[in-house]
Amino acid sequence: MNVLKILEAIEFVSNRHAGQVRPGGESQLAHVLRVAKAVVGYAEERHPGEADQADTLVMSAILHDVLEDTSATDSELAERFGGEVARTVRALSHVCEDEPDEDYLARVAWGGTVAIVVKRFDRLDNFRGLANMSADFRERKLKEIRAALPVWREIDREGAMEIEKEVNKYE
Fold first, then answer.
1. I need a surface site. Which of 3, 54, 70, 85 has the fewest CB within 10 A?
2. Cα-Cα-Cα-Cα dihedral sign, residues 155, 75, 124, 69
3. Which residues, 6+ apart, have CB-to-CB distance to 88 below 8 Å?
4. What percent of the chain has pLDDT over 90?
């Protein structure tokens, strides 16, 4: 793995997400780094010796929320981290807050395997804070996730099973 590029991505999001807090009170940076850590484990297991694939996967995980949550731009990501990373992060970025999961996940699927894997670990990490949310927020999110499970099964069978297990913990 290109450690210097990965550290550059961490520094970039540290600056861009500085002071941002997720619902529930934790820092946005903590979430991004947990997703990246999970993706590193996946990359080491599934892509040993494939440094380019692993670099794109890990940098995309680190940067996955930076377009939708900060003033960062596609062109800025492409210049600093390459076109493939920028394209993947764009696929992972919601167009608007009310975007239906079906539309969003179709774009994630269009982004390819890297985008799908990053989104899987992002979604799984989002379950961590769900227990600390208000009952209304939690139920709304679980309803959205349940409704999107058929799409997940189409684009990421393995990830869908993991996500379904997490949803079932709340039933």
1. 3
2. negative
3. 56, 60, 111, 112, 114, 115, 118
4. 72
